[in-house]
Design a protein that fits this description.
about 230 residues; alpha+beta; 2 domains; 5-stranded antiparallel beta sheet; 6 helices; about 25% strand; globular
Length: about 230
């Protein structure tokens, strides 16, 4: 990171790497369904210190685990325009238990303000959905009939330098990394579908004018052969 920068958006390369890693981490570990929840934790009062916010989050997780057993999580800290912090947390059980936690229980465990809970069912685009939610900045509108507007990626300018955008529990697995041809890797991991769940193409131009094409694809069923079940 460029230590002379004033916020994360000043170092765009670092931000893109962080968000790319987060998207891959979410896609690899969360797939939707009744074993997972997405919880938003909001402060009742102004809290600008991210370290204090993360301490409050640790207490929140300890309380939940005491009553609901071991839970794995990915927690993304998000700044508001006022400088106040709040969290978006992906929670999941590590066995076959259905994860149901009443919102009043979550609010009591949080103890700092308000909570909101939802279940994400779209496994194919979960990583992209969560990242878009925490990086795009809503634009307030006085016109009730107008569509909701936002500025793509604008929230990145609100992150102070050095803040860890996300943290995760020890049981969250890193994506599988292999080197080889696409067909070889898909066959090795038992992926039989021909179409990726997510695909993106980017083009980079070298100094000599040559174009290099990068294609990023996500297969949510990758790893079935390695792990012996749904991935």
């Amino acid at each position: 990171m460029d230590v002379s920068s004033t916020n994360r958006a000043d170092n765009l390369k670092s931000v893109k790497v962080t968000m790319r890693n987060l998207r891959r981490l979410i896609t690899h570990n969360f797939h939707g369904g009744n074993k997972e929840l997405w919880v938003t934790l909001t402060y009742r009062w102004l809290t600008k210190n991210p370290e204090i916010a993360y301490q409050d989050f640790k207490r929140f997780i300890r309380k939940l685990r005491k009553d609901y057993g071991h839970l794995e999580y990915i927690a993304v800290i998000e700044p508001q325009a006022t400088g106040n912090w709040h969290f978006h947390v992906l929670l999941k059980t590590t066995d076959h238990r259905v994860l149901r936690i009443p919102n009043e229980i979550l609010a009591k465990a949080w103890g700092q303000g308000f909570t909101k809970t939802k279940r994400l069912k779209n496994k194919d685009k979960m990583g992209n959905y969560v990242l878009a939610y925490v990086t795009n900045l809503d634009i307030p509108s006085t016109d009730k009939d107008s569509e909701k507007k936002y500025v793509k990626g604008a929230r990145l300018h609100l992150y102070p330098k050095g803040v860890r955008i996300y943290r995760c529990s020890r049981g969250i697995e890193k994506p599988i990394e292999m080197t080889g041809s696409k067909d070889e890797i898909l066959e090795l991991n038992g992926v039989i579908k021909s179409k990726a769940d997510f695909s993106r193409k980017t083009i980079h131009e070298t100094i000599s004018g040559q174009e290099i094409v990068y294609i990023t694809e996500f297969y949510n069923d990758i790893g079935k052969k390695l792990m012996g079940g749904d991935a």
